Prior knowledge:
Blueprint: H1 9-19, E1 21-23, H2 25-31, E2 37-41, H3 45-51, E3 58-59, H4 65-69, E4 85-89, H5 94-105, E5 111-114, H6 117-123
Parallel strand pairs: 1-5, 2-3, 2-4, 4-5
Helix pairs in contact: 1-5
Amino acid sequence: MTIGKGVELDTLIKEAEAEIEAVDAQELQSTIEDDDLVVIDLRDIRELQREGHLPGAVHMPRGMLEFWISPESPYARPIFQEDKRFVFYCAMGWRSALACQVATRMGLERAAHLDGGFGAWKEAGFDIVAYEKRKK
């Protein structure tokens, strides 16, 4: 099947990147322990299990983004109602660019995304934490 009148993914990503703030791995690493920062891992749980995650990262499946951010949602998470800086990341930076665009439009004024995603972090040689299943 050919999509006739759709917008290409590359266009969507470029439009998002034009609207949002991006941070590189070096910049994020220098602020990773700030109390004011919340790092959000958007990757699928299987990616976390296989590759680990950034230190202190909160896992939020991309499909729950709007529901966790919206205070009117039954799935709202209190952390998103706090005056914090949020940095989203995924594997390569595509999902996080789109997610950051939505988060910013929803009111997270201090949102950014990790340019190059987990891959850029890993390539820079920064710490990666092994995934541990949450205890109930």
